[in-house]
Design a protein that fits this description.
Blueprint lengths: L3 E4 L6 H11 L2 E3 L18 H9 L1 H6 L1 E6 L2 H10 L9 H10 L5 H7 L3 H4 E2 L2 E2 L3 E4 L3 H12 L23 H10 L1 H7 L6
Parallel strand pairs: 1-2, 1-3, 3-6
Antiparallel strand pairs: 4-5
C-alpha cells in the first residue's frame, strides 16, 4: 500500500473518510483533535496543506499520495448552518450575514466556514494529488483505493445532516452572499447552484 495522507476539509464527508483512514492506518490532518486546525502550535501557515507539509516534512509530503474532499459550497453552507457550532444563528439568513461580516460564534464555527481553496490551493495550484467530490463520494473513493493499492470497499456516509434540499434555504440575497464568499471554491472546483 502506498503512503497516503488525507487533508480533512470540514463539512465535506470527512467523518466517513476519517473512519476509513483509521481502519487502514492512513494519516489524516485538519479539524478539532485531528492535528493543526485550529491548534495554534501547529499553525505554521494559513494554508492547511502547508501546515501538514511543514509538520511531516516536505519530502514526506511530496512522496505521499495526498487527498482531500470538497463539496458544492451552496450545499456546504447549509451543512455549516446546521452544525452545532452555528447554533447562535437563528435563521439561514442570519448565518449568511454572519459569515459575510466575518462574525463567528466560535473557533469551530470559523473553521467550519473556511473556504476550501484557502487550505488546498496555493497560487492557483492544487496542492493535493486527488480531490473527492462529496457528490461522487463512492466513485471518487474507489479511485483513492486504486491509487493507494487497496481493494474497493463501501464507504458509508456518516454524520450526514438532516435537512431539506439545500436550494430550499436560499433566496436571492443569501445566494449572492454565499456565491461571493465561496466564489473561488465554486469556480475552481466547477460547481454551480442547483447541482
Amino acid at each position: 500500500m502506498r503512503d497516503a495522507i488525507y487533508i480533512r476539509m470540514p463539512r465535506c464527508g470527512s467523518t466517513s473518510i476519517v473512519d476509513f483512514c483509521r481502519s487502514e492506518k492512513i494519516r489524516f490532518f485538519g479539524g478539532k483533535d485531528l492535528g493543526f486546525w485550529p491548534e495554534p502550535a501547529h499553525n505554521t501557515s494559513e494554508h492547511l496543506h502547508q501546515c501538514v507539509s511543514n509538520y511531516i516534512g516536505g519530502l514526506a509530503y511530496k512522496n505521499s499520495f495526498i487527498f482531500s474532499s470538497v463539496r458544492n459550497p451552496y450545499s456546504r453552507a447549509v451543512s455549516m448552518y446546521k452544525h452545532w457550532s452555528w447554533n447562535p444563528a437563528k435563521t439561514f439568513k442570519d448565518f449568511c450575514n454572519s459569515i459575510k461580516k466575518e462574525e463567528y460564534p466560535s473557533k469551530s464555527a470559523k473553521w467550519h466556514s473556511s473556504t476550501l481553496t484557502e487550505h488546498i490551493v496555493d497560487d492557483g495550484y492544487l496542492k493535493v494529488d486527488f480531490v473527492i467530490k462529496l457528490e461522487n463520494l463512492q466513485q471518487d473513493f474507489n479511485i483513492i483505493c486504486d491509487k493507494i493499492g487497496i481493494p474497493h470497499q463501501q464507504l458509508p456516509h456518516k454524520n450526514k445532516t438532516k435537512h431539506k434540499h439545500y436550494t430550499e434555504y436560499y433566496d436571492d440575497e443569501t445566494r449572492q452572499i454565499v456565491g461571493e464568499i465561496y466564489s473561488r471554491d465554486i469556480e475552481y472546483f466547477g460547481y454551480k447552484f442547483g447541482d
